[in-house]
Amino acid sequence: MNKYLLAALGAGSMIAMAAPAAAQNVTGTVNITGSVAPKCLVVPNNGSTFGTTVALGELAGADGKLRPNVATDFNASTGLTARVVCTTAAPTISVDADPITAATALGGGGYDNSIDFTASVAVTTTSGAAGPFTNDSADPAGSDTLIGGRLANNGSDNIAITASNFRTNNADDLLAADPTYTGKITVVIKPGA
């Protein structure tokens, strides 16, 4: 009887093996996540600074007063443009012009050791020109201001700095002699919201 039972089980197993197995689908999913932090950078090289030195040379004319072509010389300088990009749609800009000053003490009226001016920064966004964003060196630093769109990322410089209205406290002031007058323009571009 055990023989018949084993034979029956064996035959049944062969029938079960001969029947095709039901198809079973298996699905695997790989979720991919990431993020991009708000940031601005100078292109190329992904830097965080840009700038140059503008050497204006002799600031006084033959009469000792501020020479009239300082703005022309400043704006003809190289290195006053940059390419900056931000990962955000609403970057901000602030401009701060510091007067061009000398350490020489003044001995009385009619002399000046400081030259004020107005700094301007023009910006190109994906929708066109924005600005200029300005600050006069006689005023406090400019506050963060919305640029008005994404910075252009077309391979060209999109930041251009100019200066104008160079002046002493009084038009008739003579500039005090000093070998080192220094000033600067600081432009800060932030990612914004």
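The record above closes out task 2.4. Task 2.5 opens with a second protein, given below.
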Amino acid sequence: MSHFFHDPRNSRRDFLGQLALGATSLGLASFAGPLHLEAASRLPSNKEEPEAWLKKITGKHKLLLDVPRPNEILPFAWPKVFLLTNAATGTPANECSVVVVLRHEAIPFAMENTLWPKYKFGEVFKFDDPATKAASLRNPFWQPKPNDFVVPGVGPVDIGIDQLQQDGVIFCVCNMAITVYSAAVATNMGLDPATVKAEWLAGVLPGIHVVPSGVWAIGRAQEKGCGYCYAG
């Protein structure tokens, strides 16, 4: 059972710092060239058009949550808070639009449970399971059980990704971060980067949109009128 408290001591390393140990063997400098950047951000050919999800942003009230790293339950609690408080002030959830962009160190939340122990996502991305308080071996925000998340003064809350999707919340995940992190993890594990990236992309949860980059999605959502909220 998780509680809605934030410990400021749980600061996270920045994006490049996360990759420092594997940078030499991976040759991250190669990503600096425009051709490499284009290849890294290109979406799989079987995915939807990059901007198709933007057509869903039609609500009276619109919010974008920028999630660059794990931050306890907050990136998933705040969409629910936005919807609940809008409902309380006269605008139901189906008349609101919420976009959650999972980028940088938050990308594992977009992936299925089977990938978590295989690639040690809890250790790599420094996220502890709310139930065990150890490095997570699962995605706790996908199909959570009743009473998994309890907010003091409120009680149990439905903040699983699948539950939020039922409320119309749109989730996106950064393809650029998947490209870089899968390559770094593959190199450290002695695996083929292309194979690992393909497995990560295949493991993206149903309904989550793979976008060229997180910052690309953030810009597009704001162009559609979404207010910006930093959730990392």
